[in-house]
Design brief:
The protein is 63% helix and 0% strand. It is an all-alpha fold. It starts with a helix and ends in an 11-residue tail after the last helix.
Length: 123
Amino acid sequence: MKRKGEKIGWAAGWMGGFIWVIILSMIFLVQGRWLNAILGLLIVVAAVLAILRCAPWHYPNTPYWKLMLGPYAVFFLSVAWAVWSYGGIYGLGLNWWNFLWLLPVLIPFGTLSTRKWSDFDEK
């Protein structure tokens, strides 16, 4: 149970980023939009699997940026699902520039870059 807090931080932090998908899926379920609801819940399952499968303590010598590719891929899939569920980019009144708001989400790629889980092991 070494580094329990870091493990909780990885899992809870990533899973917390998908709470909105669960909420939106439940809204679709109440509205009777079954396809959107089921796809959203499948995305949540994929997210949980990606988060647990790509956990850094399973691959201590792999750089964090490589491990984050799985959860990030599911995250961007969930954004595409939400946009599609509401009628597409133009159906929402968005344009392509609005997606620049997603750039700050990528900050961990820069800040963690080549760090690894094993970098923080007690020597």
